[in-house]
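Problem 12. The chain below contains 91 residues. Write out its predicted structure in token notation.
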Amino acid sequence: MGRRFIFWFQCFGWGLDPCVVSFCSLYKPPACNFGGTKVSFYLIRQRKDELEQRMFALQESRRELMVQLEGFMKLLKEEEQRHQAGGAPIK
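Solution.
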């Protein structure tokens, strides 16, 4: 009972599919030998896919932030040039 609970906790902590985890932790059919079988590969591949999706989302967010930063930098530069041309100090 204790090992199953720890296993469940680890799998849910990693965000793994609860249906596969519960099936394999309770019934342990031959395909669920966690020493290096189909289900362990499935779980690892599922986690890899989740991490890749998160990475792509973060990369897209970074691109959007960089575009915003470039826009703000242009505005700042234009504002500095305008104040320098007029002789007024920047506040």
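Discussion. The chain has a mean pLDDT of 75. Students who got a different answer should revisit the alignment rule from Section 12.3.
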